[in-house]
Design goal:
eight-stranded mixed sheet, alpha+beta
Length: 180
């Protein structure tokens, strides 16, 4: 399956991606500044194990974000903790290539994923959480039509201190209203 946008396309994350730049992103302090990665050395083998775990796991859908212009893999995007019972999933995104920051790649990829989640998978709700200082992700969540739903206080230990996680969510009807 391939989801097409103007600047990017999404394709399933594949085992061969562990041989590329993907594992290095999770060792980059700038890329991991606001997420739970970067605490231990992330290896090719760890990337392979993660990909193998997600390939046939019904609670995950993981896509590689690739540029249309040169097929370069610049990030990953996923639906995690997919719950059939609750018709919900967690939205997660990682743009690993800092050279594409500020180009709207995350928004375009996020828009493609929301469309897939709500129209193909027929989910009712998507949600995400981000470090309270991650203004770029907070802005992305709002731009995608998500609403701030709350805050988990001191929920993430990062860089020697605890940080709040700000929670966002969007429902099917809100997504559809945003298309009008």
């Amino acid at each position: 399956m391939r989801l097409e946008g103007e600047q990017v396309y999404l394709r399933p994350l594949e085992l061969r991606d562990a041989d590329g730049v993907y594992p290095t992103w999770l060792n980059d302090p700038e890329v991991c500044r606001y997420n739970s990665h970067g605490e231990i050395l992330y290896t090719r083998e760890m990337a392979q194990a993660y990909i193998e775990n997600t390939i046939n796991n019904p609670s995950f859908v993981v896509f590689a974000i690739c540029l249309q212009e040169d097929d370069r893999h610049v990030g990953n995007l996923s639906l995690q903790q997919i719950s059939v019972k609750n018709s919900s999933a967690e939205f997660a995104i990682l743009i690993g290539d800092p050279f594409v920051y500020g180009r709207g790649i995350g928004y375009e990829a996020g828009t493609l994923l929301l469309g897939y989640a709500f129209t193909t998978l027929k989910l009712h709700r998507l949600y995400c959480g981000t470090h309270a200082e991650n203004i770029a992700m907070q802005n992305l969540a709002l731009k995608l039509g998500m609403s701030e739903e709350g805050r988990r206080r001191d929920a993430l230990f990062k860089n020697g201190h605890f940080a709040d996680i700000v929670e966002y969510g969007i429902l099917t009807d809100e997504y559809l209203e945003g298309l009008r």
